[in-house]
Automatic annotation (TrEMBL), chain A:
Gene3D superfamilies: sav2460 like domains. It comes from Streptomyces hiroshimensis. Pfam families: TerD (PF02342). Residues 1-184 form the TerD domain. It comes from the Bacteria. This is Export associated protein.
From TrEMBL, chain B:
PANTHER family: CAMP-BINDING PROTEIN 1-RELATED (PTHR32097), GENERAL STRESS PROTEIN 16U (PTHR32097:SF4). This is TerD domain-containing protein. Belongs to the CAPAB/TerDEXZ family. Residues 189-207, 228-246 have a biased composition (Pro residues).
Length: 192, 620
């Protein structure tokens, strides 16, 4: 069952059987720009990037994105930059894996963001979505549809934060503008 | 996800470009027929078989084989094709089995182009049949589906084709059989059967020789077919609530040694990252404490008095509790790594093992070059007894520089300069002996430059065992003669490799890998020799000439900065523990300790004598 989250809606990542989530994946998928035929190299590729920013007490302490694929502690891993997108049929083109059990004790929030590196706004991108998946059983926890999302080039998707002994997830869904996660910092901070 | 079909079951197909893999217990003919809406095959041109192996949207192999791959492009099929039957038949008149009953059940899989299986079907319960319709791909309301059929025909191909409404059934069957017989006569002998214990019976065997059916066999005549590696030893199930018990070789790899190598590197990374998590948590706790104390101080109203003390105490408690939590997590990780290191250390082969490991006592001259070599071990201050073996890939991509200069940290005061030089040369000999011992006889040659004869004592084990071909080069003349020879070898081998004429090297060129140990640099070196040494350091590794410098950088100060690139190009290791190496992930400073022979042990002498005997036996 997939929850289509609305802005600001939170879900606890406690599982129904009382166990807590141990690993989540943020997946990002979009459809590659159509080929323009003969001069294929001039096709305007669409490059969306998924990033995760790790916060401790409101301070960003580490970030996982296409230039830093693994957090220093090894708990958050980016599977690699996809520069052009995929078939647009629902598969993840970029993914960030979070091993929640190994996240260092002082990290209390992890914010996931999506940026358009090549500058196309989400209204120009086809079949774009991002989602959070329980990595242990493949179940989708939350999904956003990005295309048709208006003239924005970025979105603060969701945050995973500590709650009690486990973790909870809150959908944020704030649109923003920026080429990489650095440009988004002012937009991220209010949602911590 | 793969659907395992049973007879009659169907499954939707999402893509239109597919591959159908067939594996059978012996050579079979694979073909396909294209049927119309009524299920009938309109003519012989609608049958893909070895004599007519390519139809629009469909390709089958041109001869009988135990394994087949059929390529199907459903979109490229003619419009009026509504069914594709994939059929298998035993080659007639080839002296092989005449019914499927005596063979292992054929297995067919529909896969995507990247090999991902969509559906599989094992055709069981065949008896006297010599032809069988394995699968049917069919159009249903514009979409394609696959159905497991498994219908056998005792009457063979002809009966099957007739059943599908083909008028020229007999002629077509005869044409197929004739083509197959021709193909069988041409085909090379099948590869030897794989061992029964093969863990992946469904894995496709290497492609049948040359899809074009040509006479050339592209397989290496003696190389075993690429069997998948034996599965990694599985960890025994863990006690509930306990971490799983570590197992040596619990990593990916094609051989046990590769697995151990990967496991050691995995432990290295895990330790680096766990420590990074701990250190960043502690740093954060410190900085938060400082901020909170500053806040208390900056407010005049609360700067003094019991409220301020309470606030300070609370801030300290928060810091202590976070550090404690971080330490608990680190201790958990370290305990697991210590247990793993314990298990792994005992399983390491000679090239990866410490000198005091029992594997060196039972040393035998190897037949193959190992993938890596142990240079020492690494540890972090958080847990000094957790040692990670430092393994480097062979052949060495960079030369080694054993620094006989004053160490930067730890033991600076303990060791005096001449003692350090002696230790450095002993370390070099231990590394060189290990390199000699882990290479097959005659595959590794060690040269020594010792201009002033200063390293006589340390070199004794190498000299006495006959492991060195010639005495160390001494004096300026000896240095330049040896460097001339090695330079020439690098140059000639490079030329031979570039022009692809490796068999036209002059007979006096030693094709074994070469290790050049240089002691006391730059003593005995003139400018020409220095240039040659730099040439060997730069160009040598790619053609099997490696450099091991035993030097104090201070001695070469007179050259100024021009030698800096040489030092940087070498991997610096030390004869005494020193913290100068960084890991590639987070850049911690690790303390390196060389692999040395335990004091009083003769293991090095024993091993080198073994090498010397083997060399004599081989006449090298």
């Amino acid at each position: 069952m997939t929850v289509n989250l609305s802005k600001g809606q939170g879900i606890s990542l406690q599982k129904a059987d009382g166990g807590t989530l141990t690993a989540v994946r943020m997946g990002l998928g979009w459809q590659a720009a159509p080929r323009r035929g003969l001069f294929g190299s001039r096709t305007r590729e669409i490059d969306l990037d998924a990033s995760a920013v790790l916060f401790a007490g409101g301070q960003p302490v580490d970030v996982v994105f296409f230039r830093h694929l693994v957090s220093d502690d090894g708990s958050v891993r980016h599977t690699g930059d996809n520069l052009v997108g995929g078939a647009g049929t629902g598969g993840d083109d970029e993914a960030i894996l979070v091993d929640l059990q190994r996240v260092p004790v002082h990290i209390d929030q992890i914010v996931f963001t999506v940026n358009s590196f090549t500058g196309q706004t989400f209204s120009e991108v086809q079949n774009a979505f991002c989602r959070l998946v329980d990595e242990t059983n493949g179940q989708e926890l939350a999904r956003y549809t990005l295309d048709g999302g208006g003239a924005y080039t970025a979105q603060i998707m969701a945050k995973v934060h500590r709650s009690g002994n486990g973790w909870a997830m809150t959908a944020i869904g704030t649109p923003a503008n920026g080429k990489t996660f650095q440009d988004l910092m002012p937009a991220i901070l209010p949602s911590l | 996800m793969t659907a395992e079909l049973v007879r009659g079951q169907n499954h939707p197909l999402s893509g239109t470009r597919l591959e159908i893999r067939v594996s059978a217990g012996g050579p079979v003919v694979a073909g396909a027929t294209l049927g119309g809406e009524d299920g009938k095959v309109a003519g012989a041109d609608r049958v893909a078989h070895p004599a007519s192996h390519r139809l629009p949207g469909l390709e089958v192999s041109r001869q009988a084989a135990a394994d087949h791959r059929l390529a199907v492009d459903l979109e490229a099929l003619p419009e009026d094709v509504h069914r594709v039957h994939v059929l298998l038949a035993l080659p007639a008149g080839a002296g092989g089995p005449t019914s499927f009953g005596v063979l292992a059940a054929p297995f067919v899989a529909v896969t995507e182009l990247d090999g991902a299986e969509i559906a599989t079907f094992t055709i069981t319960d065949l008896g006297v049949e010599s032809a069988v319709v394995a699968l049917e791909l069919y159009r249903r309301q514009g979409a394609w589906k696959v159905r497991a059929v498994g219908q056998g025909y005792a009457g063979g191909l002809a009966a099957m084709l007739q059943d599908q409404g083909l008028e020229q059934a007999f002629e077509t069957a005869a044409a197929i059989n004739e083509a197959v017989t021709r193909g069988m006569a041409r085909a090379v002998a099948p590869p030897p059967p794989r061992p029964v214990a093969d863990p992946a019976p469904q894995a496709p065997a290497p492609q049948a020789p040359a899809a074009g059916g040509g006479p050339v066999n592209y397989h290496h005549p003696r190389r075993a077919t690429a069997t998948p590696p034996a599965p990694a030893p599985a960890a025994p199930p863990a006690e509930p609530g306990q971490p799983p018990r570590p197992v040596a070789g619990d990593a990916n790899g094609w051989t046990m040694n590769e697995r151990l190598y990967n496991q050691v590197w995995g432990m290295f990374e895990d330790l680096a990252r766990s420590t990074a998590a701990y250190r960043s948590a502690v740093d954060f706790a410190e900085s938060r404490l400082e901020q909170e104390l500053d806040k208390v101080l900056s407010d005049p109203a609360t700067r003094v008095g019991p409220a301020a003390d309470a606030a300070r105490a609370e801030a300290r408690a928060r810091q202590a509790s976070l550090v404690e939590q971080a330490r608990a997590v680190l201790d958990r990780d370290l305990a697991q790594l210590v247990a793993e290191a314990e298990v792994v250390e005992h399983a390491l082969p000679p090239a990866f093992a410490r000198w005091d490991s029992p594997v060196w006592q039972g040393y035998q001259v190897p037949l193959e070059t190992p993938m890596a070599l142990r240079l020492g071990e690494l540890h972090l201050p958080e847990r000094t007894d957790l040692r990670i073996p430092m393994l480097v890939r062979l052949p060495l991509e960079r030369g080694l520089w054993i620094d006989s200069g004053r160490p930067s940290g730890l033991q600076a005061a303990i060791v005096d300069s001449s003692e350090l030089r002696r230790l450095a040369m002993e370390t070099a000999v231990a590394h060189a002996a290990r390199l000699l011992a882990v290479h097959p006889v005659g595959d590794y040659t060690v040269h020594v430059i010792d201009p002033a004869g200063a390293a006589g004592g340390a070199l004794a084990p190498l000299l006495q065992s006959g492991a060195l071909k010639e005495p160390p080069a001494a004096g300026a003349q000896g240095v330049s003669a040896l460097l001339d020879r090695l330079t020439r070898r690098v140059d000639l081998v490079q030329m031979a490799v570039r022009s692809g004429a490796s068999d036209s090297l002059p007979p006096d060129v030693d094709t074994a890998e070469q290790l050049l140990i240089v002691n006391d640099f730059p003593h005995g070196f003139d400018d020409r020799a220095v240039n040659q040494l730099r040439y060997i350091a730069d160009e040598g590794p790619s053609v099997g000439v490696h450099l091991m410098m035993v030097a104090d950088r201070e001695d070469a100060r007179g050259y100024g900065p021009v030698l800096d690139p040489l030092w940087r190009a070498l991997l610096r290791i030390t004869p005494v523990p020193d913290d100068h190496l960084a890991d590639p992930w987070v850049g911690h400073t690790w303390t390196y300790e060389p692999s040395l022979v335990p004091v009083g042990s003769d293991v090095l002498g024993q091993v080198l004598r073994r090498v010397g005997q083997a060399r004599q036996a081989y006449g090298i």
